[in-house]
Fold:
Amino acid sequence: MIKTRDSSGKEIVVSGARIAYVDIDTLEANYDYFKRKKTEFENRQKNIDAELERMANTLQNEYVALQKKAQNGELSQSEGEAAQQRLMQKQNELENKRQSLGSKYLKDREDFNKEIHDNLHEYIKEYNEEAGYDYILSYSKDGSILYANDALDITQEVVKGMNSSGIKVKSTDSSKSK
Structure:
């Protein structure tokens, strides 16, 4: 039998293996580095969307201007065909840029998620050297653990520790590379 304290400080007895869990949703909501990077990614996504929208609007305006010239008889057939080719090329460039920016953004998000995962595991390893748990599980609202006893929740200790830990985070400024 092992005695421990629940989140309110009340002493409880836990028999068997020492188990604790980290609520991933709470960790993400309170881990300063995660919140900062999440905001950076949201801003980056807005910038990408705005840039693509500007490019699409410019292309649309060029198309409308071309149509007006054609309707007013201001273009020869060869000029019209050349202008149409340029517009199609710009449309392809826009699609390529959309795919390129989207792929880069997703890769950077994937890299960030791996970094957070690695940071958490590194911190948990250090944390558990003193805490001595047999298992530390991750818990999230939509995860595979259907119930978790609040007395086993070490999330706040982990958040506090990760926010003040010496674990080095990669200094990546993914907003610069588009």
Q: What stands out?
A: The chain has four helices and four strands. Residues 77-131 form the longest helix (55 residues). Helices lie at 24-30, 32-71, 77-131, 155-164.
